[in-house]
Design goal:
Layout lengths: L7 E5 L4 H12 L3 E6 L2 H13 L3 E6 L5 H15 L4 E4 L14 H29 L2 E6 L13 H19 L6 E8 L13 H14 L3 H12 L9 E4 L6
Parallel strand pairs: 1-2, 1-4, 2-3, 4-5, 5-6, 6-7
Length: 247
């Protein structure tokens, strides 16, 4: 039987949505989790719920755009549990808009959070994974850009596909079996991702689509669990998780 018992997992963007669902599910299956996000009160409340349910959970306030915060997350995790087996890079934003709107601040924010934030996680965790002799990097990517780019999503899709490319690069550099990588690409999921969209029309349209066809974040959490629970000689490289009715 595959098991998560004894796995130590740090999760960014854990204050809601996919990150929260992943923390709750993994802890419920026996993993020791560290929840990371900017909203300290929120992750503290989720961690209390997990502990009250019999799980093991700690927290660390983190802004993924700050490399030092990711180093602190890794050190907090190893200090609390002695090691870090998995880093789930989940934090992400989507202030999407047509390129003609020239929302350069939104473009920069997506690059900083979605791409640079993931790289900050790699830089913080990879040396520890190597020192331990094992480690697993899981990133929540997106189906955006897999089969053409939808209007208004060019920069968002570019940041997510860049993460996918980096994952493949890390995989090819890690065939010694020490570091495993998994990129999980969700479609429409019922989360608060639309809150980061400045354009009111796009924000409302996204919320409507999520409400109409979106799957629960627990569906993506189960994909994370599936990848993480595999034995050390098995790597699940990529999983796409979308509603059955999504084109």
């Amino acid at each position: 039987m595959l098991s998560l018992h004894g796995k130590v997992v740090a999760i960014t963007g854990a204050s809601g949505g996919i990150g929260e669902a992943t923390a709750r599910l993994l802890a419920g299956r026996g993993a020791e989790v560290v929840l990371a996000a900017r909203r300290g009160e929120r992750i503290d409340a989720i961690a209390r719920d997990i502990r009250e349910a019999g799980g093991r959970a700690a927290t660390c306030v983190v802004d993924v755009t700050r490399a030092g915060d990711l180093r602190r997350l890794v050190s907090t995790t190893t200090g609390q549990y002695g090691r870090i087996d998995v880093l789930v890079n989940n934090a992400g934003i989507a202030p999407i808009s047509p390129l003609a709107d020239l929302d350069t601040e939104g473009w920069s924010a997506m690059i900083d959070v979605n791409l640079r934030g993931m790289l900050n996680g790699v830089a913080a965790a990879l040396p520890v994974f190597r020192e331990q002799g094992a480690g697993h990097l899981v990133s929540i990517v997106s189906v955006a850009g897999l089969s053409g780019v939808s209007p208004s999503m060019a920069v968002y899709a570019a940041t997510k596909n860049a993460v996918r490319t980096i994952h493949e690069g890390l995989r090819t550099e890690s065939t010694d079996g020490v570091v495993r990588t998994t990129a999980i690409s969700p479609g429409y999921v019922r989360t608060d991702l639309a809150d980061s969209m400045a354009d009111p029309h796009l924000r409302e349209l996204t919320r409507e689509n999520m409400a109409a066809v979106g799957i629960p974040p627990e569906a993506v959490a189960r994909a994370v669990a599936f990848a993480v629970e595999q034995p050390d000689d098995v790597e699940i490289g990529e999983i796409n998780v979308r509603p059955t009715v999504q084109a």
